[in-house]
Structures are given as C-alpha cells and as structure tokens.
C-alpha cells in the first residue's frame, strides 16, 4: 500500500482526495468514486501503486497522437478503476471493475477489504522496471492509458519523473478531470496529453458519464496554457453526441484555444451498457470532419476506421502530404515539423 500525495485530512478521520476534479470526501475504510484510493485511519492510500493490469508496446498512433513522435512505439500501461462511469466505455472490463468491488463490499458491509480485493488485480510493475524496460528496448515514451491515469496519480508521477530523468517522454490519455494541483505537479514531466471531449452537453456528461462538462473544458485550457502538447478525441456516438450543433460547439471550442490542436473524431463500437446503439458509419465521421474544418481547425483526423486520406497529415497551408497513415501504420516518418514544400511550421513534438 502506498500513501497518496494528493489529499487533505479533514475532521472525524475523513480525507478529501485532490487528485481529480471529483474531489471525493472519503470516510474511514472507504474508497473514492474510482474505488482505488482508500482512507485508512485518516490517511489516503493508492491501492494500485505498482500494480499494472494492462501493459503493451503500442504504436503511438493508437493513443491517438498524430503530432507526437510519429511512427514510434510507446510503452503503454494502465491499472483498474476510473473516476467516470461512461455507459459506452470501450475498456469497461478494466475501468469499472473497482466500482463493482466497491459496491459488493458496501453491500457486504466490509469496505475495509478494498485493499485486499483491489490488490488482486494486476501484477507488480514498479516505476524503475518500466523505465529500465524502455531503456533496454529503446522505447522513447510511456503512455498512462487504458483506464483514467489521474486516479493512479502517485504511480504515474513517480514513473514520469524517473522517465524524464532517463530522457523518456510521458503521455497521458485522459478524460480531462485532472485537478489543478495534479496538473501543476505533472507539468514538468508530462509532454503530451490526448484528452477526450466526449460531448458539449452537461446533460450528456452527467447522465452518461457521471461527471460534468465544465471541469473538462477547464482542464483542456489549463493543460494547453501549461505548454503540454494536446490532442482532443471525440468518440462519435450515433444519436447521442453527433448533432450538427453539438459537433460545431466542440470544434469551435477547440479552435478558440488554438486552431492547430488536432481533433480526432473516432468511430464508436457498441460496448458495455450501450450495445443497442449501432456503430458509427463513415458518413457521420466525414460529417464531423467537415464541421471541424469549417470551424477552422487545421488538423482533423478520422479514427477507429481505416481511411488513409483522413488519417494522414497534410500541410494546412499548401495541402502537401506530410505523413501518410494507413490504420496505425505510418508510411513516412521523416517529417521534422516544417512542410518541405511551403516551409509552413506544423506544431507538434517531432523528435
Ligand atoms: S481520484 Fe478517485 S478518490 Fe480521488 S477525487 Fe478522483 S474519483 Fe475521487
């Protein structure tokens, strides 16, 4: 068990977790919404420190990050648990398992057993070992992904600091609920984030995700202001978030921060509690793509579907093909951030 950094002690042996914008107040023996941060005798502990539940060496394009070391591999890890409860979650078997444990233990009136029960998930993978593996195999970056990384803040923070020292970059794939305190601590170690902007409706966020819209918008603005490279992803869910008005609002919001932030519009596949919704067709993705371009975004990408044209990077100025992608495969990766035809700079992290 590892004591958390991000929390405050309150009266009556309660604590307030400050890792994410849920800011849970947690009574003794209980866990927060994510189910992996537990109050024991007035101290908060991270139950999944050094416990990886999913580990892979992925193409960076899979995160998706298209303006970040294209064509390279990224060491990717996640634990169990999430601070959201999205009914369309594509990784629900990892993200929602800690909540199932939490609910069962509450029913059995044994919340204190969370430490033992959550400890059963994943296998030991300490920060030193992660960084050592990346160095051994020349993997240039690490992604904290699969489930929401901010809930395992202390594990990611220790790994990211060690990685940075070793010249390895760090990436968060996140739902955008990082607290300001967490972002301030991470800003010197995290190079890039892919943040989901799942909808532009607070009702969608509260009913479908068990969260709110405004905190996500605030995180996107703050991460950008802190100088972290960001790309935004919206999973296009038929009838739920794909209206012209909603997609226009999302695209305009991104453009209001920076026209050069890449926007990934990706295809939904029926999962978890949304098996009754059909998968997104290509026309809907193309519609979202056109809305993004109309709002003035320089780089809009279609994902979760193989479409070379809309997954490749073109120069915004002269339209020259800069990086050709087929699925997650990059055919040309010698791009250095300046269009060879017209010399227009293309923002991103290219080396
Ligand atoms: S990280 Fe977990 S415990 Fe902490 S505020 Fe967020 S949901 Fe609550």
Morphology call? globular
The CATH superfamily name is Aldolase class I
Helix content: 25-40%
Q: State the low-pLDDT regions, or none.
A: none
Oligomer: single chain
Question: What strand order characterises the main sheet?
Answer: 8-9-11-12-13-14-15-16
Strand tally is 20
The chain-level structural class is: alpha/beta
The CATH architecture can be given as: Alpha-Beta Barrel
Work out the strand percent.
15-25%
Number of helices in the DSSP assignment:
11
| Total count of domains | 1
The unique ligands bound to this protein are: iron/sulfur cluster
Question: What's the story with the biggest beta sheet?
Answer: 8 strands, mixed
How many angstroms does the end-to-end distance come to? 37 Å
- Kindly provide the name of the CATH class: Alpha Beta
Remind me, CATH topology?
TIM Barrel
Mean pLDDT: 95
Attribute tags:
351 residues; alpha/beta; TIM Barrel; eight-stranded mixed beta sheet; binds iron/sulfur cluster
């Amino acid at each position: 068990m590892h004591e958390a950094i991000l929390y405050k002690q309150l009266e009556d042996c309660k604590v307030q977790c400050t890792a994410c914008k849920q800011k849970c107040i947690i009574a003794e023996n209980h866990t927060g919404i994510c189910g992996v941060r537990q109050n024991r005798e007035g101290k908060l502990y991270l139950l999944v420190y050094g416990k990886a539940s999913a580990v892979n060496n992925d193409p960076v394009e899979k995160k998706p990050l298209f303006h970040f070391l294209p064509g390279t591999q990224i060491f990717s890890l996640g634990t169990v648990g999430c601070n959201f409860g999205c009914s369309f979650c594509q990784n629900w078997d990892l993200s929602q398992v800690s909540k199932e444990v939490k609910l069962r233990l509450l029913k059995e009136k044994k919340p204190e057993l969370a430490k033992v029960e959550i400890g059963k998930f994943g296998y030991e993978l300490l920060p030193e070992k992660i960084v050592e593996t990346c160095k051994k195999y020349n993997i240039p970056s690490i992604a904290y992904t699969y489930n929401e990384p901010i809930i395992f803040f202390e594990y990611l923070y220790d790994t990211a600091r060690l990685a940075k020292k070793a010249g390895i970059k760090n990436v968060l794939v996140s739902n955008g609920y990082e607290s300001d305190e967490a972002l301030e601590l991470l800003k010197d170690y995290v190079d890039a984030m892919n943040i989901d902007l799942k909808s532009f409706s607070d009702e969608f966020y509260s009913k479908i995700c068990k969260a709110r819209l405004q905190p996500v918008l605030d995180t996107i603005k703050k991460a950008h202001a802190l100088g972290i490279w960001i790309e935004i992803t919206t999973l296009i869910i038929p009838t739920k978030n794909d209206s012209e008005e909603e997609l226009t609002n999302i695209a305009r919001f991104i453009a209001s921060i920076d026209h050069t932030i890449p926007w990934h519009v990706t295809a939904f596949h029926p999962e978890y509690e949304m098996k009754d919704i059909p998968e997104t067709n290509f026309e809907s993705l193309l519609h979202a793509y056109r809305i993004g371009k109309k709002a003035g975004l320089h780089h809009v990408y279609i994902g979760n579907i193989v479409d070379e044209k809309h997954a490749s990077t073109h120069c915004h100025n002269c339209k020259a093909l800069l990086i050709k992608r087929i699925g997650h495969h990059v055919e040309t990766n010698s791009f250095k951030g300046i269009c060879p035809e017209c010399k227009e700079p293309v923002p991103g992290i290219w080396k």
